[in-house]
Design a protein that fits this description.
three-stranded antiparallel β-sheet; two-stranded antiparallel sheet; 8 helices; C-terminal of Roc (COR) domain-containing protein; single chain; 192 residues
Length: 192
């Protein structure tokens, strides 16, 4: 990899073993020091955040990784599991109430500040102007967008008049959205 561009992501390597930790005290200390130096270089280092924000962040992560068992309408089909990718703003309000946010139903400014902060550091996708949905998995959203921005599609291959509408007007019809989502094999995109 010495000539490849991706080698630049390597940091200082640390070689240690946890089987005999007493013999690796110096290596562990060097690793701790290196992690601390990298952390201090982050823009949000030493920001004072309310404890309830950290609790809510963990609850939202738990919500994202919690799997839901979904059943198809077709009889006899086996249930499938999927992680939650999007939550409603009202769900975030309920989680905030559980995490000791002061009266979220009356005053949502702290919740909005929390969501804006989480958006800025890349943990979620949230826009105050479009509050209804909060994307818990930004990578999933990128995969969804990848369905619509691809060089692999051409209108004739899909055989849909909606493709011509997209080419001519930029309007993305619902039928074309569904067709492109079904056609996508790059990732396991499900309706959130």
């Amino acid at each position: 990899m010495s000539k490849q561009e991706k080698r630049r992501h390597f940091r200082k390597p640390h070689f240690l073993s946890n089987k005999i930790p007493s013999k690796n005290k110096q290596e562990f200390e060097e690793l701790r020091t290196d992690i601390l130096c990298k952390t201090k270089a982050l823009s949000n280092w030493e920001e004072n955040l309310p404890i309830r924000w950290i609790v809510l962040e963990k609850e939202m992560y738990r919500k994202q990784t919690e799997t839901a068992i979904l059943f198809s309408e077709a009889e006899g089909e086996t249930p499938r599991c999927e992680n939650k990718k999007v939550i409603l703003y009202t769900e975030a309000e309920c989680l905030a109430t559980e995490c000791s946010f002061p009266d979220v139903q009356k005053e949502t400014s702290e919740l909005d500040s929390f969501l804006k902060y989480e958006h800025e550091i890349g943990n979620i996708v949230f826009f105050k102007e479009v509050k209804e949905y909060i994307v818990l998995d930004p990578e999933w959203l990128v995969d969804v967008f990848r369905c619509f921005v691809s060089h692999d599609y051409n209108g004739e291959a899909l055989g849909m008049p909606e493709w011509a509408v997209l080419d001519e007007t930029g309007k993305l019809e619902d039928a074309l959205i569904e067709k492109l989502l079904k056609k996508s094999t790059e990732s396991d995109i499900d309706k959130a």
